[in-house]
Amino acid sequence: MSRPRSQLALAAVALILGLLVVVQLRAQAGGSTLANLSSQDLTTLIANLNTRNDELRSEVAKLQAEEQQLTEQAATGQTSIGQLTTDLAQTRAWAGLSAVSGPGIRITVAGALPGTAVEDVLNELRNAGAEAIAVGGVRVVPGVVVAGQPGALSLVNTPLDDPFEIDAVGSSETLTGSLTRAGGIVQQLAATFPDAQLTVTPIDQLIVPPTDRQLVPAHGSPAL
Amino acid sequence: MSGALARLRGIPSWQVTLGLALLTLGFLVAAQLRSEPQRVQYTTQERPPLVETANQLQQQQDDLGTQIVQLRSRIQSLEEGGQGNAQVVRALNDQLQAARIAAGLTALKGTGLVLQFQDSILPVPAGGNQADYLVDASDLRTTIDELWLAGAEAIAVNGERVVPTTAILDIGGSILVNSAYLAPPYQIAAIGPADLLDRLNARASWVDYLKNRVDPVQLRLGYYEGSDITVPAYAGAVNLRYGQPAPAPSASAGP
Fold first, then answer.
1. Residue B8 pLDDT greater than 90, yes or no
2. Cβ A60–B68 below 8 Å, yes or no?
3. Contacts of B128 (CB under 8 A, 6+ apart)
4. Distance of residue B126 Cα from the nearest chain A Cα, in angstroms
5. SS (H, E, C) chain B
6. Distance (Å) from the alpha carbon of A163 to chain B's nearest alpha carbon
7. Residue A43: exposed, middle, or buried by beta-carbon count in 10 A (0-12, 13-18, 19+)?
8. Which of B15, B231, B242 to mutate to test the interface with A (most CBs of A within 10 A)?
9. How far is B193 from chain A (nearest CA, A)?
10. Which of A83, A98, A132, A95 has its CA nearest to residue B254?
11. A207/B181 Cβ within 8 A
């Protein structure tokens, strides 16, 4: 084999090698595996992404308006107390540090079912846009988990009564529809736990109380 | 012996290089084939545009999230430099900062744990359900709940912070957290006490979960403990559309 031919062969191998290394690294970096989803799942995913992106765009617009107002106030030496107070009230309510009132639904849960099933209901409520949730009168925030075996449920180490209530603030129509649709969580649980009964009631005006938990972490500090 | 050596010396160096390169190539091809997830591959004609749309939307979502985090940080600086009654402004800013930390709008760093979940690489036996061999949304929800119960104070999955409105859902064989599409491996970062892993492993319900779900199909679960665990800020909307802040039961209720 002449020298140029050998170099050509080496170059070809090096090219393929390089491509494979990149493909492998990308795959390991957890790159998109969207190619593995069915068309139906992709359509659901796209609908989800569209909804979320719309929400994010309004949030960006809201924050941009807020930034502009603050910049103007700073330039004219005005006070920003009004803006601070509004921000504080919104953030505290959303985080669970203060009470939230509004329309929503009440779910009465009776009979034996495990804590994970109640957690599935909470997950479904969040997915349907619930803005504040309480279980047995206790605000659900990160760290508050319904746990335990059927008949012995607890919430933050406090036993839950049977029956108990889940209150959720949000669009009563959307929340009810999402829970009670054919094949929805209420039907699924009825099939899996025939002894349990979930009743969903739309409510015009609910009040979900604030949490009494310490939500500022003791083991972490703000990272810049 | 000397004959063999002489023959070896006789091999041109480019052949040796080529040989080595081909060997590496072989390894990489094997690694690539092995690392291909067992998740089903579909091939229909309408899919490429859908995949492209989903990728673009996910990219937009990432950009919007980055924009939100940057805007929040600039607003915070502006608010901290706010004028007016200095004492009132300072008090409000302190409360606001505490509320932002409580809401998950601030990135945190501290002691804790990262759990990494990956699909099983066991061959699915005849009559077995392939879905059982993949990590699904309920695995992530169970793990996150167990981490909370073990004392975790802040959690993120593949960079998506778990906040009061976080839902974790299955879409086909994949998982959505905060409506963001996550690809395996799933890394659950939790800030909490330094012995969070011991506390987790001491929980009977976690041990049951490992015994009944993780071990039988050999989902791959890895741990990292450290004092340098970070969880990013929530990069989504903080918005009450239906609800509104209601008066606190007592004026002194602080964060």
1. no
2. yes
3. none
4. 22
5. CHHHHHHHHHCCHHHHHHHHHHHHHHHHHHHHHHHCCCCCCCCCCCHHHHHHHHHHHHHHHHHHHHHHHHHHHHHHHHHHCCECCHHHHHHHHHHHHHHHHHHCCCCEEEEEEEEEEECCCCCCCCCCCHHHHCCCHHHHHHHHHHHHHHCCCEEEECCEECCCCCCEEEECCEEEECCEEECCCEEEEEECCCCHHHHHHCCHHHHHHHHHHHHHHCCEEEEEEEEEEEECCCCCCCCCCCCEECCCCCCCCCC
6. 23
7. middle
8. B242
9. 6
10. A98
11. no
Q: Which residue of A has its CA nearest to B22?
A: A13
The pLDDT, as a whole number, for residue B251 is: 40
Can you tell me whether residue A130 is helix, strand or coil? coil
Model pLDDT, residue B17: 78
Instruction: Give the closest of A13, A103, A207 to B246, CB-based.
Output: A207
Contacts of A20 (CB under 8 A, 6+ apart): B25, B28, B29, B32
Is A129 a residue whose pLDDT tops 60? Answer: yes
Helix (H, G, I), strand (E, B), or coil: what is residue A180?
helix
CB spacing of B149 vs A89 below 8 angstroms: no
Paired sense of beta strands A164-169 and A158-159, if any: unpaired
| Helix or strand run (H / E) with residue A118 | helix A115-127
Beta pairing class for A154-155 and A146-147: antiparallel
Percent of chain A at pLDDT exceeding 90: 57
The overall average pLDDT reported for chain B is: 85
CA angle, A69 then A74 then A76, to 5°: 95
Sort out which chain A residues have CB atoms less than 8 A from B108's CB and list them: 217, 220-223
What would the mean pLDDT of A157-182 be, rounded to a whole number? 94
What are the structural domain ranges in chain A?
37-94, 99-208
Tell me whether residues A16 and B25 touch, CB distance under 8 A. Answer: yes
Domains of chain B: 57-103 (no CATH), 108-231 (3.30.70.1880)
Class of domain A99-208: alpha beta
| Subunit contact A98:B174, Cβ cutoff 8 A | no
**Tell me, what's the ipTM?**
0.79
B48 burial class (0-12, 13-18, 19+ CB within 10 angstroms)? exposed
